[in-house]
Amino acid sequence: MGIEQWLAMGGYGWFVWPSYAIALVILIWGIAYPLRVYRQLLTALKAEEQSR
Amino acid sequence: MFLFRKFSQFVSLEYMYWLCTRWLRWLIPLTIICFVIGLYGSLYVAPTDYKQGEAYRILYIHAPAAWMSLLVYIIMAVTGGFVLIWRTKIAELIHTECAPLGAAFTVITLLTGILWGKPMWGAYWVWDARLTSELILLFLYLGVIGLGSAISDPRKSAQATAVLSIIGAVNIPIIHYSVIWWNTLHQGPTVTRLDAPAAHWSILLPLLFMAIVLKLYFLTALLLRVRNAIVERFPDQQWLRAMVRKEL
């Protein structure tokens, strides 16, 4: 099976790929966002401790 | 139940924080690796369906996400019960952090369902029992998030959302049995039938694997959020300050 044929998904590519894209964007955000918040929280605490 | 009660009563926030950090060290890479394997299985390895063609591959993300939307709600309602009965902080944290994740799974379920419905049913959306009750589930999650953020005291906020989530739990059996009770356009259960599942193992196996992957994902995302909540809600604890000072 060629890559183009695979991407076409038997004519359903316009439905299959956006489905997976939406799911991946939401799921990746669900990990990346709390990781960023965690770093921000720790940075704030460090700044507080340093100014003490 | 009993174990969780003991756990949430005797585990300190410090231990919970330590547990989150330790588990996340291997949970994050494991989730990513399993996710890639799951995508490979569902988008490439699984054979083409004889009736739906390739469009059925959407179901590899749709069905596991739908199961998660129900499971996360059940966890949220049960921990909500713990919040009301024993008022433990750990239960409060888990209860509160479940809502956004459940909402995310519900949004994925609805959007992928819409994209599957167009080529297979000829309509993006129909107001049948399964779709409508799943949409109500999204509103319940949004209601829990909204109510929680409207009350500034975190303990009272958790108690209020606990009551709402327990009342809303009536929707869970409605969603599950909607395809049996009513004549819906949505198909009946394929995997959880009383007799053998109605799909060949080569199609079923990637589906079950994706279901496990999303459970792993949920655990990872939940622990990340719980850890943040511990730091955000209780920033003045001695062990936390000592840890921060050590890293300066």
Provide a brief overview of the structure.
The complex is a heterodimer of chains A (52) and B (248). Chain A is mostly helical and 52 residues long. Helices cover 85% and strands 0% of the residues of chain A.
Question: Which helices and strands, and how do they pair?
Answer:
The complex is a heterodimer of chains A (52) and B (248).
Chain A: H1 3-8, H2 13-50
Chain B: H1 2-10, H2 13-45, H3 59-86, H4 89-121, H5 129-150, H6 154-168, H7 171-181, H8 201-233, H9 238-246
Commentary on this structure:
The complex is a heterodimer of chains A (52) and B (248). Chain A is mostly helical. Chain A is built from two helices and no strands. The longest helix of chain A has 38 residues, at 13-50. Chain A is rod-shaped and about 65 Å long. By secondary structure, chain B is mostly helical. Chain B is 78% helix and 0% strand. Chain B contains nine helices and no strands. The relative contact order of chain B is 0.16. The interface between A and B is medium-sized, with 27 and 41 residues.
- Counted by DSSP, the helix tally of chain B is 9
Fraction of helical residues of chain B: over 70%
Largest sheet of chain B: none
**Major interchain interface with per-chain residue totals:** A-B, 27 and 41 residues
Strand content of chain B: under 5%
Which whole number gives the mean pLDDT of chain B? 90
- Uncertain spans of chain A: none
How many DSSP-defined strands of chain B? 0
Number of helices of chain A: 2
Helix content of chain A: over 70%
Features:
heterodimer, A: 52 residues, mainly alpha, B: 248 residues, 0% strand
